[in-house]
Amino acid sequence: MVTIPSRTSTAHRTGFWYALTAAPHRMFFLAGAAQGVIIMTWWALTLAGRYALLPAVAMRVDPVWAHAFLMIYGLFPFFIFGFLATVYPRWMDARVIARWSYVLASLSMACGMALFYAGLYADNKLIILATLLFLAGWLVMFGALLWVCLSTGRASMHELAFNLALAGGAGGIACFAVALSGAGAEWFTAARELGLWLFLVPIVFGVSHRMIPFFSSSVLAHYRVVRPAWSLPVVLTCTAGHVALVLLGLRRWLFVCDLPLTAAALYHTFAWGFLRSFGDRLLAMLHVAFLWLPLAMALYSLQSLVLFGSGRLVFGRAPLHALGIGFITGMVVAMASRVSLGHSGRSLTANRLTWNTLLGISIAALLRIGAALTAPLFVHAYLFSLAASVAWLGAVIPWVWHYAPMYWRPRADGHPG
After folding, report:
1. Which has the closest alpha carbon to 318: 292, 341, 282?
2. Is residue 15 part of a domain?
3. Which DSSP letter does residue 198 get?
4. What is the pLDDT averaged over residues 98-120?
5. Angle of helix 231-247 relative to helix 255-271, nearest 10 degrees?
6. For a FRET experiment, which of 9, 217, 218, 262 has its CA 20 to 30 Å from that of 110?
7. What is the pLDDT of residues 281-300, one digit of tens each?
8. Which of 302, 364, 301, 356 is nearest to 327 (CA)?
9. Residues near 342 by Cβ (< 8 Å), separated by ≥ 6?
10. Closest CA to 199 of 156, 229, 243
């Protein structure tokens, strides 16, 4: 058995930098928390400009594609890398990831995002440079995670699935860079589909598959852990098939992949004890966030079936935002809250603010779905989109205010890390 060494003595110091770099989740989570506010503030102002509520500002790339890239790649990966860099060594009984690697990776990715915003209003070449800088940080951290797997030889199906998903995400970022160089809109589509279906959905589902039963069993009495071996292969097959069908222009056949994914998600919702989870709000947050997956996939499936039968595309982007806001954002908030509390030496208890954050995210998802559903009928349906961005900010800003200081302060219990 490999003895996991304690953090270096710098973790015991009280300075801002030493505390911030004491554990990999700290830098990544802080950058992700900042992005959760910056991205949606930028998008709310962009929407206001589009609908003449504020002066519009010209950008070097279509704002819709910029929004898609920022939401898929510019927000969630910070939390994902922070989480995986923390748990990979624990799961595989390995040495902790080198401090220099997660510091370099997080700084490179954060600087890439800062440069991305500047490039939106300055020069397209600057956006390409920002994307490549972000990708470089991504690859550094991906390499560090792969090294943990290869050096121990103990990677389970979860780590293998995560590694494949991280490779898919890197491919999506590369597609976005190619699109920015003028290769065509199909490369933007590839970047979006790879990022959503080959990166985010497999990782967020995989983390749920591993952690929700574990956390539930530690809280609920007489809990039966359900973690089927077929789950990850089915989800990976369905998400890969979804991407292939979209890129081949066969959206009307998406139900072939989306219906099985709907059924699998619904099965796990009840098998993991959704109703029992409400005895503990921090645990319930994970279960409520996961419920959005079968709801989103049901919308995708119904949309595809209608398209197959009538040739009409109904629901617009409602399924996308049920998936992106309801499931992925909700699960990231729920998991990041738990990790932040536990790894800062605090009690694993969701206070009212933390619980209200998840509720606010769910309200934002409902408002954005409402915008998509009412767009064909209501000339002012865009107001729902603006309201969704405001609801997001109203939920996320207090969360960031509460949790961000945990990342630059020493642990409350005096332990390293």
Report:
1. 292
2. no
3. I
4. 97
5. 150
6. 9
7. 999 999 999 999 999 999 99
8. 364
9. 348
10. 243
Tokens of 117: 């915003």
pLDDT at 360: 98
Q: Tell me the pLDDT tens digit for each residue of 357-390.
A: 999 999 999 999 999 999 888 888 889 999 999 9
Q: In terms of residue numbers, what domain contains 52? A: 23-408
Where do we find the tokens 């990677």?
155
Q: State the burial class of residue 119 (Cβ atoms within 10 Å of its Cβ: 0-12, 13-18, 19+).
A: buried
- Residue 228 token pair: 């089927």
Average pLDDT over residues 308-330: 96
Residue 416 domain flag: no
Residue from 304, 214, 228 nearest 262 by CA: 304
Compute the distance between CA of residue 89 and CA of residue 156 in angstroms, rounded to an integer.
13
Task: Write the CB contacts of 114 (distance below 8 Å, at least 6 apart in sequence).
Answer: 130
With cut-offs at 50, 70 and 90, classify the pLDDT of residue 172: very high
Residue whose entry in the numeric block shows the structure tokens 């961000």: 404
Contact (Cβ atoms closer than 8 angstroms) between residue 193 and residue 246:
yes
The rounded distance, in Å, linking the Cα atoms of 266 and 197 is 18
Give the C-alpha separation, 154 to 66, whole Å.
Answer: 38
CA-based R_g, the chain, Å: 21
Residue 414: inside a domain, yes or no? no
User: What's the whole-number mean pLDDT along residues 163-184?
Assistant: 96
The CA distance from 228 to 205, in Å, is 13
Spell out the residues 6+ positions from residue 370 whose beta carbon is closer than 8 angstroms to its own: 381, 384
3-state secondary structure of 92: coil
Please name the residue that has the structure tokens 């770099």: 21
Say how many domains are in the chain: 1
Q: Using 50, 70 and 90 to split pLDDT, how confident is the model at 10? A: very low
Positive or negative, the CA dihedral 228, 229, 234, 240 is positive
- Tokens for 116, please give them: 């991305």
Q: What is the mean pLDDT of the chain?
A: 94
Question: What is the model's pTM?
Answer: 0.95
How far apart are the C-alpha atoms of 378 and 381, rounded to whole Å?
A: 5
> Is residue 277 one of the residues assigned to a domain?
yes
The shares of helix, strand and coil residues in the chain, as percent rounded to the nearest 5, are 75, 0, 25
